[in-house]
Amino acid sequence: MRLAACFLALLATPALANPPRGIDMNGAEHKWWECHIQPGTAVSCCRASDGHVLDDSEWRAIDKPDGSRVYQIHVGSRWYDVPPKAVVNDTSKCGPEPEPAKRPMAKVWYAPSWEMNAIVNIDIYCFMVGTMY
Questions:
Q1: How far apart are alpha carbons 90 and 114 in whole angstroms?
Q2: Alpha-carbon separation of residue 112 from 40, 67, 117, 118, 123 (angstroms)
């Protein structure tokens, strides 16, 4: 009984992850990614998701008949709508991205939901349109 209780306690303990090898936690690139805040909140885009650089084939803008614009990103085998509240419109406080070659590319912070080794949905926290600089 005591062994089972210890095992359950271990399962309930949150796991702490180390950053990937080679990441300088004090480096300019890491600080740039961490700087971005979810629109309308004081929460970091990176808090619950990973940041990804998107090439031109992985995102698109769709202009609606009412004049509004919707963004979509391609993850896995499907396109996902970016919620309007996730679109970052002001990147000036974070400065230019430290990697000049990636500055014109779109960026997205999302967390996938998995089922049977496949992504079934994603939660998009932040999205930056390409060529914002």
A1: 31
A2: 22, 30, 11, 9, 6
Whole-number Å distance between alpha carbons of 36 and 5: 41
Alpha carbon separation from 85 to 22, 40, 97, 127 (Å, rounded) = 33, 8, 22, 9
Question: Per-residue pLDDT tens for 95-109?
Answer: 887 888 888 889 999
The pair of structure tokens assigned to 77 is 């085998």
CB 52 within 8 A of CB 97: no
The answer to whether 125 and 110 have CB atoms below 8 angstroms apart is yes
pTM of the predicted protein model:
0.72
Instruction: Please give the full DSSP string across 9-71, using - where no structure is assigned.
Output: HHHHSPP--PPPTT--TTSHHHHHHHH-B-TTSS-BTTSSSEEEEE-GGGEEEEE-TTS-EEE
d(CA 131, CA 133): 5
Which residues, 6+ apart, have CB-to-CB distance to 87 below 8 Å? 39, 71, 127, 128, 129
